[in-house]
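To close the chapter, one final illustration. This time we ask the reader to focus less on the individual chains and more on the assembly as a whole: which components sit near each other, and how the overall shape emerges from the parts.
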Amino acid sequence: MSRHLLSAADLSRDEAVLILDTAEEMSRLSDRAVKKLPTLRGRTVVNLFFEDSTRTRTSFEVAAKRLSADVINFSAKGSSVSKGESLKDTALTLEAMGADAVVIRHGSSGAPHRLAGWIRGSVLNAGDGTHEHPTQALLDAFTMRRRHGRVAGLNVAIVGDVLHSRVARSNVVLLSTLGAQVTLVAPPTLLPVGVEAWPAAVSYDLDAVLPKCDVVMMLRVQRERMDAAFFPTVREYSRRYGLDRHRVAVLGEDALVMHPGPIVRGMEIASEVADSARSTIVEQVANGVSVRMAVLYLLLGGADAQRLGGADARWPGGAAAGEATP
Amino acid sequence: MTWLLRGVRVLGGDAADILISGDRIVDVGSRLDAVGAQVLDGDGLVALPGLVDLHTHLREPGREDAETVDSGTRAAALGGFTAVHAMANTEPVADTAGVVEQVWRLGREAGHCDVHPVGAVTVGLAGERLAELGAMADSAARVRVFSDDGNCVSDAQLMRRALEYVKAFDGVIAQHAQEPRLTASAQMNEGVESARLGLAGWPAVAEEAIIARDVLLAGHVGSRLHVCHVSTAGSVEILRWAKSKGWRVTAEVTPHHLLLTDECAATYDPVFKVNPPLRTGEDVEAVRAALADGTIDCVATDHAPHALEDKETEWAAARPGMLGLETALSVVVATMVEPGRLTWGQLADRMSMTPALIAGVADQGRPLAPGAPATLTLVDSGAHWTVDPSQQASRSRNTPFAGRRLPARVTATFLRGRPTVLDGKIA
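The assembled structure is written out below.
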């Protein structure tokens, strides 16, 4: 594994599978009374969030704490950043405080890449602008693998605002690495110019795509996109691209409905669909903690495990990460 | 002062001596002798008329932390330039006779090369009403090139009026072609790379649509139009068509658009952020071909110094722009002369004669012949050097060519008989 997780595109198939397998081991921990491992004791993980995201920040915080790391939450609001401090100065400050890993959420694409050039610790991209959100894609793949038993060969539709979605970008590259077939479904205005180079099919017609789907992943559509003329009205968007009761009826029996959240009920997804048995929305949140534990473990603890000859006594059940593959 | 430049190759031709007396070339020939002349052993150096840059940001007044007229013109002289055109987007904007005269005077005091201020087309570059173009033309700075560079004169009626108005003093409007609505918050060329990197796209059409409109306007009112930093294959097509109509349209390309592509953005290092953005490999090939066949008339640097803190940021927060003066000649040699697409004589045309003609600068860009101003630069065409940002004369460090090995090095520059650079150093 590289020292950083900046982009899902940087992961080889073996690395991605290692993360998913490790996450599987981590998830067993949540069934225990004491949900904590000593693996990262004495290590410091900084959550550096320039955008509000209670969900992702909390998920990383829980993950780091379950591995016994010290966690510092650094939010841009009310901090030195709001006084005009640059990203670089913030990074150097965190470095001076001894951060072993920085989990960064930033509104600018590529901010984690810049950070990785300025500090010695590991950088985990927790969402950068409209670029990537690699741990979201990993937890989505983890969820698919749990429900379907595999990722390779699955037909996955990603529906909605692909243009502005870091979730879509990370999922397209990771799912393709893992052998799934991805179809992007959106109005043409919400697909990027250049999408033809992505390892994914493109459709403007949700109804044509749904019958063959094993997974339908809905993306949130921000209402302000309407003001920028990406589509005429919320109602029209919802009629053409929303996942309602009638559309769900054509899905196969095992097909899943996924959403990275937060959901906008009644716009991209109907309430009864979001709450149905095929919806994995809540499950995705739980899986997010396991996947983030796995990533933190492999980036920060993995080196130690190797130095100890692969037999890491701190690992649950005594198995080294590489042996966790069933 | 008398100078004898011995054994130089004028426009890359056979070795000859150039005799300079006062501010003029008095003789060009073999085995010239002049008692008491200072001798510079040229030994095969290529002699070119001093380079003329139509597009330079000197940042003074306002951002003297990034560049000053003095530091920027040092960089220019070291790059072989004897004249630069200082863009108007300073603080305050060069939209009055007072500001352009200040910049012109600072250039004279620095003395490293001629500084011709470019006047703003509209007050404060706001694109709403014309600045006092005539007052700037009549000032001591004798402004002939007008541009809102950085901003596009996007209002079609205002652009038409500007094109018409400057005919009275043979001025030219240099347009920064960027349709603003198509480029709101744009970060890089729109295409495969922007889709992958998640950076908002700056589509080629936003440049091409304005150029198409402006050449039609220039044709309609019979005015001169100069198109700044052409970056796309589509723009080249439109220019070729406009020229075939006989319209008075000229265009420039920057060294960075001749060499770099949008794939540079993959590092997210904003040293590669520039406006217009780096384009695709096909666009690079198109602008090279256009510079070779004359569809694009000249090279202009768009030298755009920025303070460190304006580049050591995340991509979106960084200011667009790149240094260019000290690397321009080398990049043009690497991309055009070495591959055999331009001769040294054609390079002199694209970097000296033609830009001087476009800007109406009479004493620059003249053939190196007896009677002409002794305004020239000597280039070691066989030298190679590695670009080191810390060794640049500019106050800023934002060169996109850091670490690159480039051919050709300026050894000496003369401005009207006075050396501004000797032995590759400021004289």
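The first helix of chain A runs from residue 13 to 29. Residues 134-281 of chain A form a domain with the Rossmann fold fold (CATH 3.40.50.1370). With these observations in hand, you are ready for the problems at the end of the chapter.
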